[in-house]
Amino acid sequence: MRPLSLTMTAFGPFAGSETIRFAELGENPLFLINGPTGSGKTTILDAICFALYGKTTGDEREGAQMRCDLAGSDILTELIFEFELAGRSFRIRRMPEQQRPKARGEGTTTQAPEAQMYELLAEGKENLIVASKVSEATREIEELTGLSVEQFRQVMVLPQGKFRQLLMADSSEREKIFSQLFQTRIYKRLEENLKVKAAEIRREREGLGNVTRGILEGAELLSVDELELELTDLEPVTATALENKQASERLSVAAGQDYEQAKLVADNFERLAKANLELAALQQRADEIDAVRRRLQEADKALRLQPLFSEWQRCEREFGKAQRNAESCVDQQKSANQTLDTHKLTLETLKPLQIKLDEAKQQAIRLEDFRTRVDGLKQARTAMAGVERQIAQTQLHLSYKQLADRQLRSQQREQLQARCDQQQKLLSAKEQQGRKLKDSFEQQERQTKALELTWHQGQAAVLAAELENGLPCPVCGSCAHPAPAHSDQPLPNQQDIEQARDDLRQTSERLEKEREAFREAQHMLRDLQREMAQFVDSLTEPELTATEFEQEFIGLQGAATELGMGLDDLRQVQLAGLDGFQTAAETAMISLASARADLVTAEREVPEAYREAGVLERELQSSQGVISATEREISGINQAYQQAERQAEAAQVAAQLAAAQVMESGTGLETARQTYGSALQASPFADDEQYQRALLDETGYAAHKRQIDEHDGARQRLGGICDQLQEQLSKKERPDLDKLAAGRASAEAAKTQAVENWRQLDKRLSRLLDTRRQLQKTAAERAELDRQYAIIGTLSDVANGQTGNKVSLQRFVLSVLLDDVLVEASQRLSLMSKGRYQLLRKEDRAKGNKASGLELEVEDAYTGKVRPVATLSGGESFMAALSLALGLSDVVQAYAGGIRLDTLFIDEGFGSLDAESLDLAIRTLVDLQSTGRMIGIISHVAELKEQLALRIDVFSGREGSSLRVVTP
Fold first, then answer.
1. Within 10 A of 11 (CB to CB), how many other CB atoms are there?
2. What is the three-class DSSP state of 59?
């Protein structure tokens, strides 16, 4: 990163606006930021750091505390920083949270923090990257530079009093810095993945051990040997039990078959006796069935006469119907003749009706002549009313637009306030959730530490549990174990420890995410509050309450209803402008004058009696009504006479036809009577009454027929059954079923006992065989896990620093990179210390579980000894830290894909050097400058001011500080 320009307004001690154009200092300058104590030298570094990350270099003050107390209330604190990175140019602008005067009224309001970020393109063009959110701007800077604000402070901006921090950092802290700079997180992920995989294999193997014990316990066994011994004894016993089972089953089947055959013979004896009884009962009903047969024969003879009797009855009905119809036709003929005589008299009234019709038609022709003139008058009046309506609508539109605009502003304010309230509730909810998560994290942390402590304290009890009498102790070698250690409480295993640590890490990650979400919600609330304040300041009229709006709207809506306008018509008014309403009103006034002139002309052409709307139409409708009524009356008289004439002719023809039908039906009746009488005399029935008694209806006939058929069928069936059973049982005797049943029960009991004995033995054998298969499968799986753990577990131990010198994979890679850094740093430190000191990496393992591999030592050429860097004096530690920072810059840029550190700012520390050491330090920085670096030194040491021609001088005064760029 290379600064291009920095503009500070009301920031720190600078009350006004101060701009530093770093391009004026040259291509790769080595410059001094000079000024008295408290003038604002370090503020320049704070401004760069705050513009990029929203925090100062020392992180001792928030952005809101960096506002200059001497600045005017109308000047807002802001920073604008332009820089170049990897061939691209950017500009970032930040404003911290601060108080500013209200746009309207008295008092102040809170200005929410803002941040905008642009990429500067060719030809003066810009590309907006971040619009306003401070968190997004910080995230973009971290992605571009690859540095967090803490790493930026340690590597690029070494603030006052922090020179020793990078030099004195332990292995863990230095590992965090270097892993980000050299992008070695892939090795850390590899360590974690191997560790997780090895833990999974260990858990699976422990689980298989539990499975093996569970399988043996499920089979009620103590060991695999016991399983094999029981299988050897059980297999022959089970085979013998199977043979006994099969023999008893055969005997049981034979006894059952004997009993079933005997039971079948006994059932046949019972069936024969029952059939003989039923057959005897049928013989006793023979006379009753013969009587039914004779009754059915008489019904068959009577059935032959039934068609002739039915025909005679039909002819009687037809003759009576013909007589009644003839009498009715004669009455209708008399009535039709009377009606015809009446309509002949009405024909004499047609002449006066025709005269009335002619007079009404002449009146209608006269009225029709005035219709065109009345239509013209109506159109003139309509045009007049339309213009007046248009003027009223224009005034109504203007009033509603003003009302709607005021209501819209009120709604916008309510919506904005609702968003603020909702965001405030969301912020409170996130704050409460964050507190709960923090409490949970602290509780989990305490529980994890307690679990680890219990695990360490209980390892002796775990080892003692494995001791066996007569076998040597793995610790002391003694075969006697007089007082082995034990634990009164259950001990956690390694899996429990790792699970607790994983849960704690996950809770920590969730807590960090929740904190980030809380900060995002906080920034959003401030943005909404600032937007709300700006909106309130922009209002020029008092807000309209809901009651006031409703009252005014009801009045406008009533006026709109009177004009025939709907609510949708009023809402469309908001899309138009006021000029359109005024133009419409002027046009309507011109149209009104023209419409009045047309109305006067139309009224002159219409008589006074017909000027009133509807009068002429009513007169014309009355004439048309008279014409229509008279025409209908004349037509009705003619139609009635013609209809009566047709009805009289039809009645005469109907009477003649009815008389002929009476004669024809009488002849048919006489013929049918004679035919039925002749047939009755030839039948076995003496008279008609005897014939009627012999008849049966369909239901009775079917019942008699069914009774005869059922009796004959049952007699035939029972006779066949008796003959068949007598033939089957002729050579047999009744069996003793009780004796046979007792033999079957005895055989069944023996079979049941043999089956149960075999089933128990076979069940145990199957269970033991299944247990053997499960144990074999589990043993194969455990062998596979042992093979995997031999590889993965070893790699995990090596990668996570659990072997040898306790150096993890990432720390090993970083140690190699650190060696490269120390080579470059030692060259500069040797030059500045006149060959006395060189920086070395401590390769000895640290004591206990402390991380090692990245500690630093210093080799003293004067004493020939190596000692910790903490033993260096103030000036010596400054030179060592400066050498380390410069060496780090060289190595980071040497590795492809590394972060380019083109700029280094040094805040104080030179005052601890003597003249010769100071000269050596300056010479080192000059050599570094020639490689393309920009180096800025903040100091008030007079010797530096004399040696460095490029300066930024900072001046302090009663009205605030100012600065000036000094070049040769």
1. 27
2. coil
Pairwise CA distance, residues 801 & 783, whole Å: 26
Whole-model pTM: value is 0.40
In whole numbers, what is the pLDDT of the chain averaged over residues?
78
Q: What is the DSSP letter of 697?
A: -
**DSSP element (H, E) containing 159:** none
Total residue length of the chain: 968
CATH of 289-366+617-694, picked from 1.10.287.620, 2.160.10.10, 2.60.40.10, 2.60.200.20, is 1.10.287.620
State pLDDT tens for residues 134-161: 889 999 988 888 777 776 765 666 544 4
Q: Are strands 157-158 and 951-955 parallel, antiparallel or unpaired?
A: unpaired
**pLDDT for 376-395, tens place per residue?**
667 777 777 777 777 777 77
Distance CA 558, CA 565 (A): 10
Cα–Cα nearest to 845, from 804, 798, 805, 797: 805
Give the separation between CA 830 and CA 837, rounded to whole angstroms. Answer: 5
Which residue do the tokens 């980071």 mark? 892
Distance CA(342)–CA(344), nearest Å, equals 6
CB 48 within 8 A of CB 153: no
Partner residues linked to 79 by β-bridges? 8, 94
Amino acid found at 511:
L
Q: Which two tokens stand for residue 797?
A: 């131990």
| pLDDT at residue 912 is higher than 60 | no
d(CA 397, CA 420) in angstroms, rounded, equals 34
Contact 85, 118 (CB under 8 A): no
- For residue 644, what are the contacts with CB-CB under 8 A and spacing of at least 6? 336, 339, 340, 342, 343
Cα separation of 742 and 66, whole Å? 112
Burial of 963 (0-12, 13-18, 19+ CB in 10 A): buried
Q: For tokens 């009289």, what's the residue? A: 648
Residue 818 phi/psi, 5° resolution?
Answer: -65, -35
**CATH code for the domain defined by 371-459+492-601:** 1.10.287
DSSP string, 179-233: HHHHT-HHHHHHHHHHHHHHHHHHHHHHHHHHHHHHHHHHTT-S-HHHHHHHHHH
Give the CA dihedral 938, 943, 946, 952, nearest 10 degrees: 10
3-state secondary structure of 939: coil
Is beta strand 951-955 parallel, antiparallel or unpaired with respect to 30-34? parallel
- Give residue 90's pLDDT band: very low, low, confident or very high (50, 70, 90): very high
CA-atom Rg of the chain in angstroms: 61
Where in the chain are all domains bearing CATH 1.10.287.620?
289-366+617-694
The residues near 764 (Cβ < 8 Å, ≥ 6 apart) are 234
Q: Regarding beta strands 856-860 and 865-868, do their DSSP bridges make them parallel or antiparallel, or are they unpaired?
A: antiparallel
- Neighbouring C-alpha atoms within 13 Å toward the C-beta of 13: 20
Distance CA 528, CA 532 (A): 6
